[in-house]
Each structure stands twice: as C-alpha cells, then as structure tokens.
Amino acid sequence: MFIAVTPFAAAVQAQPAPTYAELQPILQSRCVMCHTGASAPRGLQLDSLAGLLKGSSSGPVAKAGDAAGSELIRRLKGQSQPRMPMTGPPWLSDAEVALFERWIAGGMPPGGAASAGASAPAPSPAAAPRPKAGEAPTWAHVAPIFATRCAKCHSPQGLMGPAPEGYLLNSYEGALSAGDRVRIVPGQPLASEVVRRIRGHARPRMPFDGPPYLGDADITLISDWIAAGARNGSGQPAPVPAGARIRLRGVLSADGTLDGLVIPSGGRRDKMPYPGDGVELRGVVLPDGQIAAERVRRR
C-alpha cells in the first residue's frame, strides 16, 4: 500500500526525536501549575519524567512509539475532553504539540542526566498568573484554581463520575452555563453560588476535598473576577444571563442580609426566618443583572 506523505509531515518525521529535557519548559509553564503534588488531577504528576511515565490513575498517558494512541497527545489536540491545558485557550501551538508527538514516536528519550527512575529535579512549579495592578481578572487568572481544586469532580467524568448536578468547571463555557440554574452571575459575586460555596456560606462547602479549602487570596480573586464581569480569556465580559434561575443558600444575618447579600423584595415568603436561621432564596436574573426574588424560606 502506498501512503502519501506531505512535505510537512516528511520534514517532521525526518527531524530527530527531542528529549524530555526539551519538553520540560513547556510542561513547567503550562501544565505543572495543576499536575503536581498529591492534588494532581487523577494523580498525573507532570513535574518529572518519572511522573509522566507513571501516568494517571487511568493508566499510561504516553505510549512509546505510538503518539496517536497516547492520551497525552489526544488531550493536547482536543481529541479527548477536557482539552489541555485547562487554562486554554490559547492551547499549545502546533509546533509544541508536534514536539511531544516526535518525543513519543522516538521512544521518549530522557535527555541529559535524567532517567525514567530519577529525572533531573524540575524547577519550582510556576505560580498561577495573577492580574497586574489595575488589571481586571480574566478566565486565564482563575482557570488554574478551578482546574486544580474543582475540575477533578466538576468535569464530564470526574472522581465522582458525571459532574455533580451536571455543573462543569473545566471550561469557561461550563462555568458560565445556565443549565438548570446559573452559578455565576457576572457583576454579582454575592449572588453567585460558586462564591457562596467556596466561602462556606452554602453547604457543602467547596472544594469538596477540603479542608484545606481555598485560601483568602484565591477566594478574593474569584470574587473580583465575577465582580469585573466574569471575563473570558480575551478580557471580554460575559453577557448577563437574563432569565436564568438562581438558588442561593446561607444564613440570615442580624442586618437582614443573606451573608451580606441584600435579599430582594417581593416573591413568596415561607416560614419567616430569624437572624441565625438558614435561608434559601430562589429567583431569576433580570436583564440589568439584579435578582428578582420568587421565594424566600427558612430551611
């Protein structure tokens, strides 16, 4: 059988296989912020050659000589979901993906003094990007937090199987989806269920594997991101999900707020709550981003 090979493919095949040492800077800058330590999603640690070769709880992610059949390549290309890195777009460039493909096809050579059992020490994991002074947070700033602490469950097939309540936090579209109800209301962090969960105002507190829960800096960053319009990776604010339903739970404060959220007037009132009582607020999002109450009750 004759198989046509394009000039580009022939050129790629003719190049010598790169070594792990050449891949490490890409892994360090785009993958290690999540895939390191005991909390690495599915146990896949990408901060060393040994971790990459060990693979995840589902098995090897790279098969020497079989780039097309390696889950690592399928994730980088988006052939398997969620596509990686979780902070994309932007994803890895075609040239960067091709580097991984050639490494696998060439037998996954370690390079330098590294070996499968004891790879050269990797530099400290790159910190998740933080907005500069005066810069509005975007999805690129908060995605690493969701990827590290939330997406292990809130993905199509997470640690608990299908995502709880079908809510996905492995993509911008999933986080902003309305579905049965909206969990993020752009411009309204206190009216966003995600914020109330990570702060512990609503139960169960999230992330579900806490404590430790998110630190104050991460909670503030997520709150600021929502307050600034829940912007996508390009910095564009999310549209107001007018008509979307909400369900908020918390404790009635002495000042009559729901953990700081002014309870909208109107709607049905059941079992009139007193300060200190648990309260559930159900309503809809108005075109201006405000909340219209449909029902407020003691729980």
UniProtKB/TrEMBL annotation:
InterPro entries xrefs: Cyt_c-like_dom, Cyt_c-like_dom_sf, Cyt_c_Planctomycete-type
Compositionally biased spans, kind Low complexity: 111-121
UniProt KW keywords: Heme, Iron, Metal-binding
Region named Disordered: 111-135
Domain Cytochrome c stretches: 137-230
Molecular functions per Gene Ontology: electron transfer activity; heme binding; metal ion binding
Protein name: Cytochrome c domain-containing protein
Species annotation: Leptothrix cholodnii (strain ATCC 51168 / LMG 8142 / SP-6) (Leptothrix discophora (strain SP-6))
Biological classification of the source: Bacteria, Pseudomonadati, Pseudomonadota, Betaproteobacteria, Burkholderiales
